[in-house]
């Protein structure tokens, strides 16, 4: 069972699908760095991060309903 994505992972996924150029898609490390720069940019409005945090909460709640006995346990 995969872990539910956090707000940054949802944001990163959105950037990869809609904003970051397709030629960068093969280079996941580079794409992650670019997404991290966007996410940590002080000019990014608070409301944007808040919206992604709310989406992550919805996904987390859905995950909890679908897998009620799930407990993260790193290897």
Automatic annotation (TrEMBL):
<dbReference type="InterPro" id="IPR036910">
    <property type="entry name" value="HMG_box_dom_sf"/>
</dbReference>
<keyword id="KW-0238">DNA-binding</keyword>
<protein>
    <recommendedName>
        <fullName>HMG box domain-containing protein</fullName>
    </recommendedName>
</protein>
<feature type="domain" description="HMG box">
    <location>
        <begin position="1"/>
        <end position="71"/>
    </location>
</feature>
<dbReference type="Pfam" id="PF00505">
    <property type="entry name" value="HMG_box"/>
</dbReference>
<dbReference type="GO" id="GO:0003677">
    <property type="term" value="F:DNA binding"/>
</dbReference>
<dbReference type="InterPro" id="IPR009071">
    <property type="entry name" value="HMG_box_dom"/>
</dbReference>
<dbReference type="GO" id="GO:0005634">
    <property type="term" value="C:nucleus"/>
</dbReference>
<keyword id="KW-0539">Nucleus</keyword>
<feature type="DNA-binding region" description="HMG box">
    <location>
        <begin position="1"/>
        <end position="71"/>
    </location>
</feature>
